[in-house]
Amino acid sequence: MYDNFAKIYDTVMLEVPYEKWLLRISEWLKAYGISRPVSSNGSVSEKDIVVDLGCGTGTLTEMMAKSGYDMIGIDISPEMLNAAIEKRDISGKEILYICQDMRELDLYSTVGTIICVCDSLNYLLSEKDVQKTFKLVKRFLYPGGVFIFDFNTVYKYETIIGDTTIAENYDDCAFIWDNFYDSEKNLNEYDLTFFIKDKNGLFIRYQENHYQKGYELQQIRYLLEEAGLEFITAIDDERETNPDETSERIFVVAKKM
Question: Residue 92 contacts by C-beta under 8 Å, 6 or more apart in sequence?
């Protein structure tokens, strides 16, 4: 996943509300967390470290680092991490990037906070994989540490995205996004066809297939508690209200007691 698509990911994802998510995460860390910006206390301990799980091209990772947090970015895609490292080379931030599957999370120490946003969790296609990931999150959280994440709901895949096609054109790339939803398996398939301009001005065609699974808040809460994490709160991402049956993306805060 995210091989050649990583080259145009930031271009086609310009509307992702990273600024809003940064503000929300920062407010939750002040309210519920133990991690603090390094600049505020002049020293770094395990509980100040923030892991961005499924960090992708490192946009939010960089923003958190600029806010003073000691960051680790983890992603399964080497190509996405290469894009993140290019950003780090420009910013000069001391961010550690690790190529790992979140289902096999393995850190050198405990950390104070783990975040996982932009529906990275939906790439886990079974409750078993979600619970395995949650258990690893608990293992590597410092006592009192928080886990902040989002997920796309069944309602979003079933009703909003459904079987749709999206096509967009940019100066250096273009893509066709064919979406297929299997209501029996509750699996969503993205068939991506994209064209990237090379150094000679020619557009090269690529294809990738991505799969995601929708979840319900009740499922997620149960899996968190089964993994030994305490559910703290959840909100509808768009409306910033309590989630309901029409919520499309839900943010959750859980804690290791």
Answer: none
Contact status, residue 173 vs residue 8, Cβ threshold 8 Å: yes
Domains in the chain: ranges and CATH: 4-153+215-255 (3.40.50.150), 155-213 (2.20.25.110)
* Tokens, residue 201: 């001005």
DSSP 3-state of 43? coil
pTM value? 0.95
pLDDT at 207 over 70: yes
Average pLDDT over residues 7-21: 95
Q: What are phi and psi of 219, to 5 degrees?
A: -60, -50
Alpha helices in 68-146 (DSSP H): 78-91, 127-140
| DSSP 8-state assignment for residue 29 | H
In the DSSP assignment, the letter for residue 157 is I
pLDDT digits (tens, 9 = 90+) for 135-172: 999 999 999 999 999 999 999 999 999 899 999 999 99
Convert 197-232 to b/e letters by CB count within 10 Å (16 or more is b): eeeeeeeeebeeebebbbbbbeebeebbeebebeeb
**What angle, rounded to 10 degrees, do the helices at 59-66 and 78-91 form?**
30
Which residue from 104, 95, 99 is spatially nearest to 140, judged by alpha carbons?
104
Q: How far apart are CA 143 and CA 242, in angstroms?
A: 27
The pLDDT value given to residue 41: 54
